[in-house]
Design goal:
The complex is a heterodimer. Chain A is mostly helical. Chain A has ten helices and three strands. By secondary structure, chain B is mainly alpha-helical. Classes of the chains: A mainly alpha, B mainly alpha. Chain B: Pfam families: Sod_Fe_C, Sod_Fe_N.
């Protein structure tokens, strides 16, 4: 069973905050490459399993983690972005999440500032995440390196921000602080609210749909 | 040739401390720790000189923005380290290690990188000779076989990082190693030749087609600089 790339609504949808050129390359090239390489690695794994080749199964793990992580992260990312003019791009679309954020950080601006500091502190490629522990309303900010996904038991990724240079370089060049500032105009708070209120398996539901 | 060598040695000296400004400031402030500040080295060629392999816009941003940020942030981290040392705050000193590794590494890596690149009319792409050439043939069979293995290593980096031709300081043998993010080649291995595989090193020109960048960069590799590093 192979994974497929789910289409985006429109590459222009996030302008002017993220350019159509970035979105097109990011989706049809970068995300597609993770999927292609994941399917190749899973094919090899399937053969290694059927031939009881344990060493090959283990040797494939880094490629599976990296490429599956890339597929998972980007799938979550596209969904937690919204055209800036949509009501979904306002934090009012996430009343319960907003209340939990205010409880934890005092107010939305303090939270955003704390999130941005984490994003800008990533040394190399990686992601920033707002994460909830399943069954609790407690939130925390996490960063993951390269394409490591947030898949630990009980952790629900509420939304993620891609800090790989390919996510912003064509538009923002080295000024990643501007990208980090602009991203808040296109966060999909409606999706964030749904993930916040749901379990981990709900957040990852779209992965099954991509098979 | 002579001018190239002069510029090269000037570039290398920037990795060492340049004590003037900072030591004056240190004396004025009555600080007993005297040290120099890292400074951004001038490139030994114009930003556009590596075209078409690497375009001028990439070189300008890479040198004047990215490398400069590593230099500035490294100096800030060292200032904090000095404060922690003065305060005998050992935990504070250790906590600064990742910043010093990242920004100090970024400064070292880029300084070595600029030096091991050269425009075609200044010897870029001309194959190595002498003992380094023999070592490459001995370890890899041929220069082309080495480049192929090097490009495979570059393509396999998961995230940001560098690939290096390194020399083992214990055995003298050479090999290809990749390093994550800005981890520099220190300790047992000596850097001979480095290629930057961060997306900022190629994205404006090659976008996601990084294999094309890895293939083109050999046209501007300065093997003379690599030979000088090889012992």
């Amino acid at each position: 069973m192979a994974c497929n790339l789910t289409p985006l609504i429109s590459p222009q949808a996030l302008e002017p905050h993220i350019s159509a050129q970035i979105m097109t390359l990011h989706h049809t090239k970068h995300h597609q490459t993770y999927i292609t390489n994941l399917n190749a690695a899973l094919g090899k794994l399937s053969t290694a399993v059927s031939t009881s080749d344990i060493t090959t199964q283990v040797a494939l793990q880094p490629a599976i983690r990296f490429n599956a992580g890339g597929h998972i992260n980007h799938s979550l990312f596209w969904l937690n972005l919204s055209p800036p003019s949509s009501p979904d791009a306002k934090s009012s679309a996430a009343p319960q999440l907003t209340s939990a954020i205010n409880k934890k950080w005092g107010d939305m601006e303090t939270f955003k500032s704390a999130f941005n500091t984490q994003l800008l502190g990533i040394q190399g490629s990686g992601w920033g995440w707002l994460v909830k522990e399943e069954g609790k309303n407690d939130l925390r900010i996490m960063t993951t390196k390269d394409q490591d996904p947030v898949v630990e038991a009980g952790l629900v990724p509420v939304f993620g921000v891609d800090m790989w240079e390919h996510a912003y370089y064509l538009q923002y060049n080295n000024v990643k602080a501007d990208y980090v500032k602009e991203i808040w105009s296109v966060i999909n708070w409606k999706v964030a609210e749904e993930r916040f209120l749901g379990a981990q398996k709900n957040a990852f539901g779209m992965l099954k749909a991509s098979m | 040739m002579a001018s190239t060598m002069l510029r090269t040695s000037a570039l290398r000296s920037t990795i060492r401390a340049t004590p003037t400004v900072a030591s004056k400031r240190a004396r004025l402030a009555g600080v007993s720790f005297v040290r120099g500040k890292a400074t951004l080295p001038d490139l030994p060629y114009d930003y556009g000189a590596l075209e078409p392999a690497i375009n001028g816009k990439i070189m300008e941003l890479h040198h004047s923005k990215h490398h400069n940020t590593y230099v500035t942030s490294y100096n800030q981290a060292i200032e904090k380290l000095q404060e922690a040392q003065q305060a005998q705050d050992i935990a504070g000193q250790i906590a600064l290690k990742p910043l010093i590794n990242f920004h100090g590494g970024g400064h070292i890596n880029h300084t070595l990188f600029w030096e091991n690149l050269a425009p075609k009319n200044q010897g870029g792409g001309e194959p190595p000779s002498g003992s380094l050439s023999k070592a490459i043939d001995g370890s890899f069979g041929s220069l082309d076989a080495m480049k192929q293995k090097f490009n495979t290593a570059l393509a396999g980096i998961q995230g940001s990082g560098w690939a290096w031709l390194v020399q083992d300081t214990q055995t003298g043998s050479i090999s290809i190693k990749t390093y994550a993010n800005q981890d520099p080649v220190v300790g047992q291995f000596r850097p001979i030749l480095g290629i930057d595989a961060w997306e900022h090193a190629y994205y404006l020109q090659y976008q996601n087609r990084k294999a094309e960048y890895f293939s083109a960069v050999w046209d501007v590799v300065n093997w003379k600089a690599a030979e000088k590093r090889f012992k």
